[in-house]
Amino acid sequence: MKLAVWDPDEPFRRWRDALAQHAGELRLAVEVVDAAAEPDEQADFALVWRPPAEWLAGQQRLRAVFNLGAGVDAVLPLMRAHAPQVPLIRLEDAGMGRQMADYVAEAVLHAHRRMDDYAALQAHATWEPLVLAPRTGFGVGFLGLGHMGLAAARRVQALDFPVLACTRSGTPRAGTDFDGPIYGIDRLYEFLGHCRVLVVLLPLTPETRGLLDYGALSHLPRGAHVVNAGRGALLHEQDLLDLLEQQHLGGATLDVFEHEPLPAGHPLWSQPRVRITPHVAAHTLVGPSAAQIMRKIAALERGDHPGGIVDARLGY
Ligand code: NDP
Ligand code: OXD
């Protein structure tokens, strides 16, 4: 079988070698081609991150497309337009959960230990111990409790913070357990009222785009910290800035933005209580991702159902 890889972020040989290794372990015969170098090669399976529409449109015999990341918001419109019958399969954790847990844990501790306040005091050479909020009342809320949200929530729970979550269904996913309250999205405002730190790990879908606007963010308690590592367009950046200016919100840790790279001169760059990282909370790891994809191809070959098939109707 032929696998075509389109990934502008990784040297092709890394994918080729990792896929060949895991195919060998599963006794699958594969040929791996570099789609950017050989765009006319017809493949059985495509492994893609932000592929060009014309390349996807030219692929005539695809059996499945594997997204080389968790979020499918960029590729799903292309699939709808050019390969509507082909299943789209996303990465399920594949080593990203641990990275995301690190990112979120750092932000929660930063907020709880009032590091933005100490940075402001340091700027004026002021030595002033501040009161620390009791951990028991310092709720950390996860908006989205999928592969990323659950990994991060478990880490934050291990740090002894109370955790809560809000999801579309309002129930834990089959096969997972979560020791905390889960709100359905119809109770979003009530959920937000309990979040001293709000961690946004939603996919970007028609339902979630722009969900966190002024009205929603105003329901967070005064001084709350917002962590967004889902997608930039989930949150209205100007509304966040306004609430920070008004000191309703205490700070934000942002990894994702409506426009990436975040344009020079954007007011978020100069807001002292906003910490910015360039979409690095969790990288796609070639080895674990190649292993997962080859296992899923083996499942398809057997006629089994691989996990992670995207529901095009829901958008994730
Ligand atoms: P999953 O599909 O595993 O989980 C998605 C979660 O969001 C589920 O809990 C789901 O609810 C919930 N959800 C979906 N739609 C809604 C809605 N309308 N209202 C409320 N909750 C909703 O995704 P992952 O955890 O793997 O990834 C989440 C996102 O994180 C990705 O889509 C991507 O955008 C982002 N990401 C960012 C990275 C980075 O480096 N910054 C790295 C990896 C991912 P339910 O359980 O009911 O289905
Ligand atoms: C992803 C990402 O969705 O890196 O995997 O943002």
Plain-language structure description:
By secondary structure, this protein is of the alpha/beta class. The protein has 2 domains: 2-94 and 284-301, Rossmann fold, CATH 3.40.50.720; 96-276, Rossmann fold (3-Layer(aba) Sandwich), CATH 3.40.50. It has helices spanning 12-25, 53-58, 76-82, 96-112, 115-123, 147-158, 188-192, 214-217, 237-245, 286-302; strands at residues 2-6, 31-34, 45-48, 64-67, 88-89, 140-143, 163-167, 182-184, 197-200, 224-228, 249-254, 274-276. The strands form 2 sheets. The protein has a 7-stranded parallel sheet with strand order 8-7-6-9-10-11-12. Helix 1 (12-25) links the parallel strand 1 and strand 2 (31-34). Helix 1 packs across helix 10 and helix 4 (96-112) packs across helix 6 (147-158). The longest helix has 17 residues, at 96-112. The protein is elongated and about 65 Å long. The two termini are 27 Å apart. The structure holds NADPH dihydro-nicotinamide-adenine-dinucleotide phosphate (NDP) and oxalic acid. The site of oxalic acid has 4 residues, from loops.
Overall, the morphology is elongated
Helix content: 25-40%
Q: Architecture of the largest domain, CATH level 2?
A: 3-Layer(aba) Sandwich
Q: Output the helix-strand order.
A: EHEEHEHEHHEHEEHEHEHEEH
Distance between the termini: 27 Å
**How many separate helices?**
10
Q: For the CA atoms, what is the radius of gyration?
A: 21 Å
Q: What can be said about the biggest beta sheet?
A: 7 strands, parallel
Provide the CATH superfamily of the largest domain. Answer: NAD(P)-binding Rossmann-like Domain
Q: Any idea of the CATH class of the largest domain? A: Alpha Beta
Q: Strand share of the residues? A: 15-25%
Looking at the structure, the CATH topology of the largest domain is: Rossmann fold
Q: pLDDT below 50 for ≥5 consecutive residues: which ranges?
A: none
Mean pLDDT: 98
Tell me the structural class.
Answer: alpha/beta
How are the strands of the biggest sheet laid out side by side? Answer: 8-7-6-9-10-11-12
